[in-house]
Amino acid sequence: MTPRWLDDAEQAAWRHFLDAQIRLNDRLDRELRAAHDLGLDDYEVLVHLSEQPDLRLRMSDLADRLVHSRSRLTYRVDRMVQTGYLTREQCPDDKRGTFAVITPLGLELLATAAPTHVDGVRRHLTDQMSRDEFLQLGAVLGRVAEQLRSEGD
Amino acid sequence: MTPRWLDDAEQAAWRHFLDAQIRLNDRLDRELRAAHDLGLDDYEVLVHLSEQPDLRLRMSDLADRLVHSRSRLTYRVDRMVQTGYLTREQCPDDKRGTFAVITPLGLELLATAAPTHVDGVRRHLTDQMSRDEFLQLGAVLGRVAEQLRSEGD
DNA sequence: GCAAGATAGTTCAACTCTGAACCATCGACG
DNA sequence: CGTCGATGGTTCAGAGTTGAACTATCTTGC
Fold first, then answer.
1. What are the phi and psi torsion angles at A53 (to 5°)?
2. Is A97 helix (H, G, I), strand (E, B) or coil?
3. Residues B42-66, mean pLDDT to the nearest whole number
4. pLDDT attached to residue B151
5. Nucleotides of strand C lying closer than 7 angstroms to a protein CB
6. Distance of C1' in C27 from CA in B15, Å
7. How confident is the model at residue A2, as a pLDDT?
8. CB-based burial label for A95 (10 Å; 0-12, 13-18, 19+)
9. Does B114 touch chain A (CB under 8 A)?
10. Would you place residue B57 in the very low, low, confident or very high pLDDT band (cuts 50, 70, 90)?
11. How much is the pLDDT for B5?
């Protein structure tokens, strides 16, 4: 491999990216936990399911969207079923398949927690930049995510 | 809390940010592990220590930089001492204190692994945008990180 | 100097994640 | 149709993380 090094400015940018990412996740997770006893990972599960018209997603599909391993999702859904935020339902078309389904209680929790979460995103992220800067950042990182998604491992 | 919602464009940008972040970490971690049997977390430890003139950092200081809990860092350093990449040294000024110190073997591993890592950052991140876009992104996220760093919990 | 509280780091038990092994079902091909 | 590789999901054992409790040392203020 011929190394294509990062120059100083690029290296600083990369460090900032890493640092902002980890600190932002950490902060949003703590704030959400403090306010609603809900971790960011569980929050993301609720978001994805709530956006489906039928409030459900196949386990594998959900795992892929969250970029979680299958077994990680199995355990996470187990816990969220225990707490009543989700249920599992058998897939009628494919007897191997399972749906994770968000319950009314899950939807209620999401509705309660969302303002806290959004407010955190505002205060910690978007308030630090102009709207254009934020949309620009989203556009650029959308390309990055898309490329990573398209190249399967 | 008066919710200041994200409009559709902002919401998409936020989703892209989350998605790029998690997928990029996942990919870089896997590539580094595959090539050098080294996780991204351990890599970051090596980077931080190697940048110090005396190749060492106090445990708490290192934990703060990595945004890891103290106990998480204790265990991580334990493992890296086992594998020979780090040693612990007593702090002479403060008998409570411990330094984590990178060994020659650790430096060697870092030197071997760095090209893989940098190449991954290039391919997956910076090749998807112009240099200016990347530096702009770094500048903006630098502000975000700085603000998060300055507000203690 | 010395008590009281703060700080550094480790340890503990509980919880979470990992990747491989596993079982069931599906789909394609002969 | 029946076999065989692929896919969906769970389970298992081992590794990693968490936050609270703990020990030792430091610092402050009297």
1. -55, -40
2. coil
3. 98
4. 82
5. 7-12, 16-21, 24-27
6. 35
7. 64
8. exposed
9. yes
10. very high
11. 87
pLDDT at B4: 83
pTM equals: 0.94
In 3-state terms chain A splits into helix, strand, coil percentages (rounded to 5) of: 70, 10, 25
- Give the integer Cα–Cα distance in Å for A96 and B109: 44
Q: Which two tokens stand for residue B136?
A: 């702009």
Q: Which of A69, A72, A128 would you mutate first to test chain B, the one with the most B CBs within 10 A?
A: A128
Show residues of chain B in contact with A25, CB under 8 Å.
21
Neighbours of A92 (CB within 10 A): 8
Q: Which portions of chain A are predicted below pLDDT 50? A: none
Closest residue by C-alpha to C1' distance, nucleotide D11: A71
Interacting residues of A82 by C-beta distance below 8 A, sequence separation 6+: none
* A-chain residue closest to B148, CA distance: A23
Instruction: Please check whether strand C approaches the CB of B73 to within 7 Å.
Output: yes
Q: Is the CB of B79 under 7 A from strand D?
A: yes
CA distance B90 to B59: 11
Question: Are the CB atoms for A20 and B148 separated by under 8 Å?
Answer: yes
Looking at residue A153, what is its pLDDT? Answer: 53
The answer to whether residue B112 scores a pLDDT higher than 80 is yes
pLDDT at B153 over 70: no
Q: How far is Cα B40 from Cα A122, in angstroms, rounded to an integer? A: 29
